[in-house]
From TrEMBL:
EC number: 4.2.1.-
Keyword DNA-binding recorded: no
One example GO MF annotation: lyase activity
Record keywords: Lyase
Protein name in UniProt: DJ-1/PfpI family protein
Protein species of origin: Rhodococcus sovatensis
UniProt keyword Phosphoprotein present: no
Domain of life of the native organism: Bacteria
DJ-1/PfpI domain: residues covered: 4-176
SUPFAM superfamilies: Class I glutamine amidotransferase-like (SSF52317)
Pfam family, one: DJ-1_PfpI
Chain segments annotated as coiled-coil in the UniProt record: none
Length: 201
């Protein structure tokens, strides 16, 4: 089964937060279609508006659609970056909140956890973010159980990862969970990425 998977993009998004998981899901599709199978994921880059976003560091990334598009996604991934501006964008926060009620899974990479918290998606289950932002997340949302020294946490319908490269670990874990461990292993091997599942606490 091909799952629709949205990655939210916004100005000052961290490049690897978004593009790292994109690469994982793209390579997983190459693995699953190599022997004639269906793609595992239909990855859609979702922007706030139709123009390209300017990622942190200046890289421009085109989007496929916008948050005004009401199509269904099985999985939604919210990357991090400089999130102060987007966390104050009510339509974006509303989009995240609405999607969390209809998706199989909503996840964050790095400071994307702040956007999930702002949208009221996170609950009493443990979450994580970039090590540099642990204290800020705890201070802004003291009700959250924020964990450090962990690459990712997966609770079935909500998943969060630590910073930047940890998004690769979460994405590969999701490939293992949603497709198969074999496909995840082959994907990591194709990417020449040293990975093994089971790193969550």
């Amino acid at each position: 089964m091909t799952r629709s998977l949205a990655i939210l993009l916004f100005d000052d998004v961290e490049v690897l937060d978004a593009c790292g998981p994109f690469e994982v899901f793209s390579v997983a599709n190459r693995v699953t279609t190599k022997s004639g199978g269906e793609p595992a994921f239909d990855v859609v880059l979702v922007g706030i508006d139709e123009g390209p976003v300017r990622a942190r560091g200046g890289m421009r990334i085109a989007v496929d659609t916008t948050i005004a598009d009401e199509r269904h996604y099985d999985v939604v991934l919210v990357p991090g970056g400089v999130v102060g501006g987007v966390s104050a964008n009510a339509p974006v926060i509303s989009w995240i909140e609405r999607r969390s009620t209809t998706t199989e899974l909503i996840g964050s990479v790095c400071t994307g956890a702040f956007l999930l918290a702002q949208a009221g998606v996170l609950d009493s289950r443990p979450v994580t973010t970039h090590w540099e932002d642990i204290d800020d997340l705890r201070r802004q949302w003291p009700q959250l159980d924020v964990r450090e020294d962990v690459r990712y946490l997966d609770h079935g319908d909500i998943a969060t990862s630590a910073g930047i490269s940890a998004g690769l670990d979460l994405a590969l874990h999701l490939v293992a969970r949603l497709v198969s461990a074999e496909v995840a292993t082959l994907t990591a091997r194709q990417m020449q990425y040293d990975w093994s599942d089971g790193q969550q606490a």
